[in-house]
Amino acid sequence: MAYPFQLGLQDAASPVMEELLQFHDHALMIVFLISSLVLYIITLMLTTKLTHTNTMDAQEVETIWTVLPAVILIMIALPSLRILYMMDEINNPSLTVKTMGHQWYWSYEYTDYEDLNFDSYMIPTSDLKPGELRLLEVDNRMVLPMQLTIRMLVSSEDVLHSWAVPSLGLKTDAIPGRLNQTTLMSTRPGLFYGQCSEICGSNHSFMPIVLELVPLENFEKWSVSML
């Protein structure tokens, strides 16, 4: 999760988030180089009084500043398209979980099990235990196995919501009457926090998401205890 005064993105916990972080750095470096070049040219034009007539009216220069931006856009577009297709790809999911957004809590249903579903409410500040995080802790965490492909089906029962977990690179809109799909896979165990990312009413800030990723053996024990 994020820490105070953090400037960058959260540490990646899934292959998709690792790709997104790499693309972010790639695009940022291109922007930095373009900005440096433009700043240098502006400084040069303001500080020198000499004018090179051949440079001001040259087909070669016009060709360069037409072709170069196109090449830069291609360098940004190709990795971006690759990640988009990667995020939409579903490879034989081992587990399917249906997430429903409500005003203002989440409900989870493990569709591969006969009767495994629960609601997840935020724990009020007055009920927090020492070490727990304000506005982020819930009474029922969603427990999932790590290193397995999990399909998330996201929808809503009332207004627009958005199910988002930054560390896993997930953000899927929950729309009433529509079932959206996304893929989730964690490369390591741990607790991962998220929040509703669509303004959904007065208590929009009070419907957090907590994922507990555990080894498969622990998940099986948890699922048996919940049935």
From TrEMBL:
Entry's Gene Ontology cellular component terms: mitochondrial inner membrane
The record's CDD domains line, in alphabetical order, gives:
CcO_II_C
> What UniProt keywords are attached to this protein's entry?
Copper, Electron transport, Magnesium, Membrane, Metal-binding, Mitochondrion, Mitochondrion inner membrane, Respiratory chain, Translocase, Transmembrane, Transmembrane helix, Transport
Q: Which cofactor does it need?
A: Cu cation
Which residues belong to any copy of the Cytochrome oxidase subunit II transmembrane region profile domain?
1-91
Is this entry keyworded Transmembrane?
A: yes
The principal localisation class reads mitochondrion
What are the residue boundaries of the Cytochrome oxidase subunit II copper A binding domain, all occurrences included?
Answer: 92-225
Locations listed in the record? Mitochondrion inner membrane
Q: What is this entry's stated membrane topology?
A: Multi-pass membrane protein
Bound cofactor: record note = Binds a copper A center.
Q: Which domain of life is it from?
A: Eukaryota
InterPro entries, per this entry? Answer: CcO_II, CcO_II-like_C, CcO_II_C, Copper_CuA, Cupredoxin, Cyt_c_oxidase_su2, Cyt_c_oxidase_su2_TM_dom, Cyt_c_oxidase_su2_TM_sf
A Gene Ontology molecular-function term?
A: cytochrome-c oxidase activity
Q: Please name the GO terms of the biological process aspect recorded for this protein, alphabetically.
A: ATP synthesis coupled electron transport
Catalyses which reaction?
A: 4 Fe(II)-[cytochrome c] + O2 + 8 H(+)(in) = 4 Fe(III)-[cytochrome c] + 2 H2O + 4 H(+)(out)
* Annotated Pfam families: COX2 (PF00116), COX2_TM (PF02790)
Question: Mind telling me which residue stretches traverse the membrane in this protein?
Answer: 27-46, 66-85
Q: Family assignment?
A: Belongs to the cytochrome c oxidase subunit 2 family.
Q: Sum up the protein's function in the record's words.
A: Component of the cytochrome c oxidase, the last enzyme in the mitochondrial electron transport chain which drives oxidative phosphorylation. The respiratory chain contains 3 multisubunit complexes succinate dehydrogenase (complex II, CII), ubiquinol-cytochrome c oxidoreductase (cytochrome b-c1 complex, complex III, CIII) and cytochrome c oxidase (complex IV, CIV), that cooperate to transfer electrons derived from NADH and succinate to molecular oxygen, creating an electrochemical gradient over the inner membrane that drives transmembrane transport and the ATP synthase.
Q: What's the protein here called?
A: Cytochrome c oxidase subunit 2
Question: Which species does the entry assign this protein to?
Answer: Steno bredanensis
